[in-house]
């Protein structure tokens, strides 16, 4: 009798665990690296442990993200690029999205920071200095009080929102030097700066690490928006509510 009761208890626990696994959901958030690094990457582990759900982050260019959202491949898109701009780019690729079918909301701010090699003794750069560096008018750190070392500008090809914001706010619309070393995304920008003395690049604040140096620059921010087809689903709302309750960065 005792053994039967034990078997029933074990079976009950197994059923409850199985039910818990069955109830777990995957929430797929796509979008740019700046938005993901600022909002969702820092909360991912904590959210998954607390909820039992899986938060899948899919980094892509904003246009690819919008197309994925339209196809139902992700649950929400997050970006710093204006929706009208993304829709125009998607249309060029043959994907026309009805704006009335989409809903967007601001969920945070992305701050652009400047990374330099850890050995760089420069601690602060003005807008004028940044403009001269990134447009190629200043080519050696000694010209602005640093070491006698050529400046290597690192520039991302897959960071359109950040690039456009920086060019507008810090370069007054001028083009980045043609001598800039081109790389891909935010992580590669950081890693290239980390590996090359004399280098400088821009990235979201959320990409900062102790292994790379950072200089103070004028504040450059852009809103981070979340885009969904219609109202956010219950599982997307669950993520947003968790973020708001734990981090409190925006009002719902």
Automatic annotation (TrEMBL):
Transmembrane segments: none
Signal peptide limits: 1-24
Descriptive protein name: Substrate-binding domain-containing protein
Keywords of this entry: Signal
Pfam families: PBP_like_2
Organism: Geomobilimonas luticola
InterPro entries: PBP_domain (IPR024370), Phosphate_ABC_transporter (IPR050811)
Limits of the PBP domain: 28-202
SUPFAM superfamilies documented for this protein: Periplasmic binding protein-like II
